[in-house]
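For reproducibility, we list the full input for the adenosine monophosphate complex.
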Amino acid sequence: MRLILVGPPGAGKGTQAAHLVAKYGIPQLSTGDMLRAAVAAQTPVGLKAKEVMDAGGLVSDEIVVGIIRDRIAEDDAKKGFILDGFPRTLAQAEALDQMLGANSLKLNAVLELRVDQTKLVDRIIKRAEDAKAAGQPVRKDDDPEVFKQRLEAYNRDTAVVVPYYEKTGLLSVIDGMQSIEDVTASIDSVLQGLDEKV
Ligand code: AMP
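The corresponding predicted structure, in tokenized form, follows.
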């Protein structure tokens, strides 16, 4: 099963990806997590990405496409994966198609978590408070001002990915304003429908 989760920051992609990991036994490939790890390890990629990430912008296509190319070639991704936070531009979506096509692989579904963007800032403030209360580090880019930049980047560069996949018939829209459990149930029913079609 090869899936993409798309939606603005704070839409719940990471939460739902964790559920899909447990259900299908395939890895979550989050470019955000991979970039944060690169920043923490101060690798050359991390050093380049840090400033852009802190400002809520997008890291270059070249860097993220390279990261994903390497990651999907790893053994644990052979039977499938969940892409979370990638592709984030049309160029990334096209690069992914090429990568998969070169290996005769196909995507099974693209799940868009559609949300009311006016509610997202509140969600992100809560995410930061929950992390703090749990003694976990708070993401620097979960600051409300930076979050607005991330949302702008989504609307400017990433939203076009949705019609791109709609044209290919791969897109399913999920109401991301439901409770976490109901979003999970909606995703499960879309994926079950796919199984039945096969
Ligand atoms: P996320 O955890 O998915 O919200 O990503 C955190 C930050 O990492 C984003 O705000 C971007 O700066 C960067 N990032 C993650 N994925 C990508 C991507 N596919 N393309 C460009 N930048 C990305």
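The pocket of adenosine monophosphate is lined by residues 9, 31-32, 35, 52-53, 56-59, 64, 85-86, 88, 92, 141, 150 (CB under 6 Å). The mean pLDDT is 94. Both points were considered when choosing residues for closer inspection.
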